[in-house]
Amino acid sequence: MDTIDLVIIGGGINGAGIAQCASAAGYSVLLLEKGAIGGQTSANSSKLIHGGLRYLETGQISLVRNSLSERRALLRLAPHLVKAVPFYIPVYDTSQRNQWAIRAGLTAYSVLSELDPLGRFTSLPAVEWSNIAGLKLQGLKAVFRYWDAQTDDKALTQAVMRSAQNLGAQVLTHAECDAIVHTPDYCDVSYLHQDNLVIQRASCVINAAGPWVNDVIDSLAPPMAKESVDLVQGSHLLLDIPALEGILYLESCFDNRVVFVMPWKGKTLLGTTETLLQELDGKPESTREEIYYLLGIYKHYFPALGSVEQLEGLIIDTFCGVRVLPKRDGSSFHRPREILLKTSVTHPRLMTLYGGKLTTYRTTSKEVVQWVESKLGKRMSIADLDTLAIL
């Protein structure tokens, strides 16, 4: 049986990024995706390439710095897919975060941007506040503008996967992992493809199955312990309301979470929620509670646009992404967003990815490929991902 260097399970942004990075480093790669490329979580995010301003509140400084660096790289490597966009933060007399706290956070964000021109921010004069069409002006104390970026998450994932294929990666869709037999010298990966059961021997396996990572571990022989995680659903609503010029960063009127109002294909995209799932059975769907939560926040800030019931009639579409977060007590909003790259001494040829962010997929990919190199040795590189355009 022929042995390849690497089998990757999962065709979301992390799987695509690892396939691209590993192929560029000279490794032979097979990627298995049980559905379509970028068809699940990587098509249902908030579509932002950003540093994560709110992560400063929980002290995730290294994550913010790295995310800002990756934002800069993606704007350079994929300018047709990643676009700089202004963000606006309105601060009211009832806001939990006052204007001095917001100014301090934006100053830190600017410093962490390391002289990136997008690190600049400003406080808009009051005469310009009404330019944000429909925004409630009563009680408004300040409006800050800063810059981040937006992308088409599915299109970006597919572009990265095309790059991986151009570099030699073999990519199979509608190919579901059935079992993995782990031995000291290799892994035999069984998968179903076109009604056939195929076995591929690999030197290493990367489990990048997103919310289904522990299902992949369940298929492993000999068995291996799993990380305890929570699956957290994030819902979005697309409203038939003309898009604003930029993105609004809003403090929820129900709790201390942050919700975005974003332009998307000429309409208004609203998100996201954080709803704990007891299980993931089929395609995730927005709940009534999530819909009314998001519409209630929108009505709070745009009261002239109608009641919640009237706004509900303007919903064009809903979609949900599912995050993998470490299991902890308390609100998921405050949990770390750093990815966990999990290995085990009992299964040294397998690495599992728990969590991850769209913005930092390149950093994740490089860390994974460093691990592959530690197992298999260095290969002859065929491309430099820091200069390779994503087309």
UniProtKB/TrEMBL annotation:
<protein>
    <submittedName>
        <fullName>FAD-dependent glycerol-3-phosphate dehydrogenase family</fullName>
    </submittedName>
</protein>
<comment type="similarity">
    <text>Belongs to the FAD-dependent glycerol-3-phosphate dehydrogenase family.</text>
</comment>
<keyword id="KW-0285">Flavoprotein</keyword>
<dbReference type="Pfam" id="PF01266">
    <property type="entry name" value="DAO"/>
</dbReference>
<dbReference type="InterPro" id="IPR000447">
    <property type="entry name" value="G3P_DH_FAD-dep"/>
</dbReference>
<dbReference type="InterPro" id="IPR006076">
    <property type="entry name" value="FAD-dep_OxRdtase"/>
</dbReference>
<dbReference type="GO" id="GO:0004368">
    <property type="term" value="F:glycerol-3-phosphate dehydrogenase (quinone) activity"/>
</dbReference>
<keyword id="KW-0274">FAD</keyword>
<keyword id="KW-0560">Oxidoreductase</keyword>
<dbReference type="GO" id="GO:0046168">
    <property type="term" value="P:glycerol-3-phosphate catabolic process"/>
</dbReference>
<feature type="domain" description="FAD dependent oxidoreductase">
    <location>
        <begin position="5"/>
        <end position="362"/>
    </location>
</feature>
<dbReference type="InterPro" id="IPR036188">
    <property type="entry name" value="FAD/NAD-bd_sf"/>
</dbReference>
